[in-house]
Amino acid sequence: MNGFPDLYTVIFLVIAVVIFLRLRSVLGRRTGNERPPFDPFARRNPAQPGAPAEDKVISLPRRPIEREETAPAAAATTLTDERIRAVAIEGTPLNDGLKAIAAADRSFDPDGFIRGARGAYEMIVTAFADGDRKTLKQLLSREVFDGFVAAISQRETRQEKMEFKFVGIDKAEITDAGLRGSTAQITVRFLSKLISATRDKDGKVIDGDPVRVSDVTDIWTFARETVSRDPNWKLVATESIE
Predict the structure, then answer these.
(1) What pLDDT digit, counting tens, does each position of 57-97 carry?
(2) Mind listing the domains of the chain with CATH numbers?
(3) Rounded-to-integer distance, Cα 103 and Cα 80, Å
(4) Do the beta carbons of residue 167 and residue 195 sit within 8 Å?
(5) Going by C-beta distance under 8 Å and a sequence separation of 6 or more, which residues neighbour residue 204?
(6) CA-CA distance, 86 to 84, in Å (whole number)?
């Protein structure tokens, strides 16, 4: 009778060795056909009772991927900081304000903003001279738009006509910037050259000069909601310096 336990022991040992060798052959090799990294946003079916435990550990490769993905973001942040320093000295309120905007809006680029502001300035002053309400509505806040439209309507009521020619922008520089809640605001000082004259209904010049190029200084403030998908900035305040 004592021989049966010894025989069973030998059989169990053989089975254990075979299972160990098979597991080692599977778990100890990489075939190149492993599953892709775990995506937490992908739809997955709930785990079923008796499902293989391997589904619970696929998320482990995700950590090195996160490090690879953050490297470009860090490089982009460094580049943005360098561009901010090019327009605002480190440690100044202007530099801090631009950095706050860049932190809230990762797509913000001070150079790109200035280029866009220059284009918007030309479009706005030209649209105002032409009485182009449609273009103005796309570029101005509600309050500024109402003020511009009121001036255009008064000009039309008096049957006055504005002659205008945009010569160019000598300089456009950011003078103030900051984040107010989720709203980014940037103030730009424009030094431009314009030819502008207003004629009454009889054609007489009542303001400006139809041939003289004038130097004009405008201080405009643009704003944008950083939480909005709309990338466009709008003019929210204007000031002219004589």
Answers:
(1) 323 333 333 444 444 555 556 778 899 999 999 999 999 99
(2) 69-241 (3.10.450.240)
(3) 10
(4) yes
(5) none
(6) 5
Confidence (pTM)? 0.68
**Helices vs. strands in the chain: H and E counts, helices first:** 6, 5
Residue 232 falls in which region: left (phi positive, over 0), alpha (psi -120 to 50) or beta = beta
Over residues 99-135, the pLDDT tens digits come to: 999 999 988 999 999 999 999 999 999 999 999 999 9
Asked if 111 contacts 80 with a C-beta cutoff of 8 angstroms, the reply is no
Distance of alpha carbon 88 from alpha carbon 99, whole angstroms: 10
- CA separation for the pair 99, 104 (Å, rounded): 9
Q: Amino acid identity, residue 80? A: T
Determine the 3-state secondary structure of 42 from DSSP.
coil
What DSSP letter does each residue of 149-181 carry, written as one string?
A: HHHHHHHHHTT-EEEEEEEEEEEEEEEEEEEET
- Residue type present at position 144: V
